[in-house]
Amino acid sequence: MSDQIQFIVEKLNQEPFRKNYNLITFDSLESMQLLQLLNDVLGEIDPKHAVDIREELPEQTAKRMLTLLGILKYKPPGSVPDLSAFRQGLVTGSKPVIHPVLHWLLQRTNELKKRAYLARFLVKLEVPVEFLQDDAVADINKQYEELMEAFKNLHKECEQLKTSGSSTAEIRRDISAMEEEKDQLIKRVERLKKRVETVQNHQRMLEIARQLRLEKEREESLAQQKQEQKNQLFHAEQRLQRVQLQLKEMHHAVVDSKPESLMKKLEEEINFNSYLVTEKIPRELESKKKSVYFLQKTVAEPAMSQSDLKVLEIKINEVNAQINQLIEKRMMKYEPIDSKFSMYRQQASIISRKKEAKAEELQAAKEEMSSTERQMLQKTNQAQELEGSEVLKGDEFKHYVNKLRSKNTFYKKKRLEIAEITAEYGILQRTEELLKQRHEAIQQQLQAIEDKKGISGYSYTQEELERVSAVKSEMDEMKGRTLDNMSEMVKKLNAMVAEKKSSLAPVIKELRQLRQKCQELTQECDEKKIQYDSCAAGLESNRSALEQEVKGLLEECVQEESNYRYVNCMKRNLEIQLQRAKEEMKTYVSPDPQERRKAIREQYTRMILEQENLGKKLREKQKVVRESHGPNMKQIKMWQDFEQLMECKRECFLKQQNQTAIGQVIQEGGKDRLVL
């Protein structure tokens, strides 16, 4: 639990939460604060849930959180015994309920974000069957399902594109490279055009080149058509040869066979084909249909994580164990050991399996025979096409094949060696070129520096002196090192031999004593083993009988325990209902009016009266509105007309003012002229 809390605190202190908690402050959070923290984490996964829980009722908060946790496929841990207890703990903000939920959500935040996003589009709305009888509703529902399937396909394509590795940067680089190549090609075409324009009759030569290109393309298409027709002719000849061979075989079969043998062969073929049609192929078809159905069902479901797969595997193992127990129970109840039916059923199942295996072998042999016949026809055709060649037979053909195989292996070996040598030669040649280029560049730089300093040729002399001194020092070191190593190795070997002799002397003495003791113990072990085997055989027979008896008693115990739990749960439910009925009766019969008002019947009666009064007031208000609707609409129309009239008067008044102002200006201008 401490590791779980520490993980939650670390995740909450990181982006995007940044809560700055430690273990003490997180453990001291109250229930409302824990619920708000859980709501913040759910809001990070699905932005629709980023709300303040103080602004909604606790039941609404619990319902919203439970809905989202159900979509995210959260399963309460084993410490929570019942779903009702989990729901109650979620409403009250219980730490044993909230902490595992936070730990589970923070472990897989990115995965849950994706699941919440997909749930918005892939959680199917269940439409009642009676509504689907309407054609319009059925069409809309069909369009809705088609859109959902289209969204699934688009999302899969998007995920494949994300994981395919082709990023936008690579695509942009490819586009830029292609644009550069296009520019280069355009420049080359322009240069060629300029070069061609200087030639005489270049237009005619271009026209002739175009016609030549068209004729070459036509020649290629005709050659392709000719090759296709040759292939068709070759296939037709092969079919003709196969048909002729079948006809010849049928003639031989008719000549050499009798009616009884033919009838027997036909009966065998009919029995085999009827077995394939009636038993084998329908069973395989049914299994394929089931596998396709399960695959379609798996594809229709949302993506599952590794934890979901583990949970499903655990459930499958549990169901398989229950099935095996039920089979054993049925066999013990209805099929005793001394019954012969089990033996007959086993024999029948073995025979059916053998029959299926032989049918598959026969079908495979027929397919192989047909393929070998086709190969034989091809080989015979190839041999006939080779003029003057003699077909080898018997030992000569075997000798020729062995000779070809040995030559082929020798040729492949030599070819691999040549390829390796060629590849290595190319690599070494390229490396030599690079090193030569680098050496020449460095030599040029060094020579330039020496010329600049006035000491040209110094580096070459220095390199020669260093090389000679290095070779001499390496030789001296190698000689001294070899002598030292040899002397040290001789000393070590002598010391090791002496040490091993001294250490192995007491061990050899002990080994002799231990061998004698081992022989004695081996004899005693064989005697005890014989006694153990005889005793174990008797105990094994008793144990098998006791195990069967214990298994039966355990099953009875489990059955009785489940019955007891069911009865106990029913008893608790009845006690709770009886207690609620007694409390309701007590409050209803109580003489205290305040206590009586707490009764559920009184509360519902009061609510019914309030709703009836509210309905009466609303109906009266509706009646008043209906009565005054006509006059009010007339008054609105009159006010609109009055507003239009006043607007016209205002416009006329403004026009009159503008005209009077223009007249005054004209009069003043005339007076000024007269004065002048």
Task: Provide a brief overview of the structure.
By secondary structure, the protein is mainly alpha-helical. It has helices at 2-13, 23-27, 31-45, 58-71, 83-92, 95-107, 109-122, 135-163, 168-197, 202-256, 259-300, 306-334, 341-385, 394-453, 458-589, 593-597, 600-675.
What attributes does this structure have?
extended; cytoskeleton; Intraflagellar transport protein 81 homolog; cilium; 676 residues; phosphoprotein; Actin-binding Protein, T-fimbrin, domain 1
How would you describe this protein?
- Among the domains are: 1-123, Actin-binding Protein, T-fimbrin, domain 1 (Orthogonal Bundle); 480-577; 590-623.
- The protein is built from 17 helices and no strands.
- The chain has helices at residues 2-13, 23-27, 31-45, 58-71, 83-92, 95-107, 109-122, 135-163, 168-197, 202-256, 259-300, 306-334, 341-385, 394-453, 458-589, 593-597, 600-675.
- α1 crosses α6 and α3 (31-45) packs parallel to α6 (95-107).
- The protein starts with a helix and ends with a helix.
Chain-wise SSE layout:
Layout: H1 2-13, H2 23-27, H3 31-45, H4 58-71, H5 83-92, H6 95-107, H7 109-122, H8 135-163, H9 168-197, H10 202-256, H11 259-300, H12 306-334, H13 341-385, H14 394-453, H15 458-589, H16 593-597, H17 600-675
Helix pairs in contact: 1-6, 3-6, 4-5
